[in-house]
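ok so I'm stuck.
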Amino acid sequence: QLHLVESGGGSVQSGGSLRLSCDVSGYTGRTFYMAWFRQASTEEREGVAALSTTNSYARYADLVKGRFIISRDNTATTLTLQMNSLKPEDTGKYYCATTSRGVGDVLDPAIYTTWGQGTQVTVAS
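replied:
not stuck anymore, here's the structure
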């Protein structure tokens, strides 16, 4: 069973950068995608970026394209999200997640089966 632990959140000024990490432990053999999601206090959870574990294909939400970069280390034990040019609307709790499902929208939280506890990101204007 997988266990995910996020870190790296914090407070930053608009235009700043943060790097989130997600430490992955447990069996990853049937993981097809790893992803980052976020949820503002009054909003639904939304997909930010997803990364295929088989061919390194990455997909980004339009709102973060060109500013965020998703990656993972060679041992696949750490998933990262480099966030640049942060905006106040990027504020929210960020979660990493994995899925063993091979179909569906990879930015749809409904297809993800394992989640971390989240890390808070606050961007001040």
